[in-house]
Every structure is written in C-alpha cells, then in structure tokens.
Amino acid sequence: MTGLDPAIHPPVRLQLMTSLTAVSSAEFVHLREALVVSDSVLSKHISALAEKGYVVSRKGVVDGRRTTWVSLTRQGERALRGHAAALRALIDGVT
Amino acid sequence: METTPQSSPGPNDAVAQLEAADLARQRLAADLRLPSGLHAWLGAAVAVQVATAAFGIAAFNDDDRNAWELVLLAAGCAVFAVVALVQIARFRRLNRATVGGWVSQAVLGSSNLASVAYGGGLAATMWAAFSDHPVLAVAAALATGAAYAAAAHHWWRAYRSDPARHARGASRAFLAACVLAAVVGLVALLVASR
C-alpha cells in the first residue's frame, strides 16, 4: 500500500474528491446525484474525509432551503494527488 | 468508520478506480450549465463600463468639468458590478455549485485573453473619446464587450475540456490587488486629465 492513502481508498471517496477538483464547492444534493449514492453513504464518507481535513462542509441557505456545501481543502488536494500517483505507479508496475 | 484497505489493489483495479473517478469528475463538470444570456449580459456590461469610463474621463478633461462626469464613471462600474453579481448568483442557483475559476477568469476577466481584450479595448475607446470621435468610441466599447464575452466563452470551453486545471479561482489577495490597481489607474487617469 505504499503511497496509497487509506482515507481515500474507498472508490466513492476517490470519486468524491476527484469530482470536487472540478468545482470550488458543490451542494450535498448535487454530489449525491452525481455519484449516485444515498444520503447516508455520502454523509458518512464526507464526515470521514472532513475528519482527515481533506474536505470541509458548511451549512447554507439557498432559495430558503437549508443545504450543505462541500469543498476540497489544499490538504485534500495534496493527498488526492499522492493517492492518484500511487495508483498510477501500481499500474506502471513501479511499486 | 475509517476504512483500512487490507491489500494493495492490482493494476486492473487501479485503472478502474482512476477511470471511475475521472468519469465522475467529467460527469459533474458536464452537468454544469451557464445562465441563459450570460455572454450577452457580460458583453453589454463591459461595453457600458468601458464607454462610461472613456467618456467620463474625456469629459473631465474639459475646462468645464462637472460632477456628473464622475457619476457617469461610477455608474458604469456599478452596472458591471451588479451584472457580475447577478450572473454569479444565477450560476450558483442553477448548478448548485460554485467554480472560482469561472468567477475570476471569465466573469471578472482575469484570464490573459480577457485582460488583453479589456485593456486594448479601453485604450482604443479612450483614444477615440479624447479625439472627439464619439461614434468610434461607442464602436470600440461595443467591440470590447464582444471580445470580453468571447474570452469568457473561450474560458468555458477550456474548463469543460479540463475542469480540474481551470476550476480554481484566483486568490483573494490577487483579486484585491487587481481592484486596487484598477482604482489607482482610474485615479491616475483622472489626475492626468486635469
């Protein structure tokens, strides 16, 4: 597991963090629909990544409804780059 | 709750994971939509701002300067600010996402293409206004707006082809420096025109 980050290893987390590189922040609902996962699954993964400091979530109000915005942190970006590099190294048979 | 992988994925698993992640990112980026009429609004706002700046500063250069010239200048800036804020809010509501790169590079014009279009257009419009060619000044302002809108469209195409590279916006410090430079430049133009 050299270079692979256990916190990003689950496929949904890798997809979530990679998706967040395309935006500055996204609403929870948008991410749930894009990743095709349930509320509870997404919530669980966001909490785990937030605990590591890889993502931040903040509450907000849009058109009168409460919502949660999620964004990738700099630390998360670095961790994602490292994890992706480790996966590519595996593909290339470097490790 | 923390998941600890028990073993390394094989090369095929690694390929599948990276492909799935890239696909998820492309799907999210592809779902993003621009507010209707965005480029027309942006181009018109820039044309108004450039025209009012050029005519306001040129008129301020006359011996019979009036306060309305400064009001005209401020009104042009206000029009652009309102249009930009409304479009940013529309984008956010439409997409349930924010893209800092789009705000700073496309809307606020910090991309190279938009900066050149705006700088060149403003210079041409001011030259025409100072040379007492109002029709030419209006045409130059309209061309500036069109070029600015085209630069925003170009940025969007670049974003769609590589969202991760373009998503991040300029830092707040950079944007603050740009605003400061614009204010200093405006004051310098006013002082120089007296």
TrEMBL record, chain A:
Pfam families the UniProt entry points to: HTH_34
Domain of life of the source: Bacteria
InterPro entries, per the entry: WH-like_DNA-bd_sf, WH_DNA-bd_dom, WH_DNA-bd_sf
Record organism: Luteipulveratus flavus
Name used for this protein in its record: Transcriptional regulator
Domain Winged helix DNA-binding positions: 12-91
UniProtKB/TrEMBL annotation, chain B:
Keyword terms of this UniProt record: Membrane, Transmembrane, Transmembrane helix
Origin superkingdom: Bacteria
Transmembrane domains' residue ranges: 40-61, 67-86, 107-129, 135-152, 173-192
Protein name: DUF202 domain-containing protein
Organism per entry: Luteipulveratus flavus
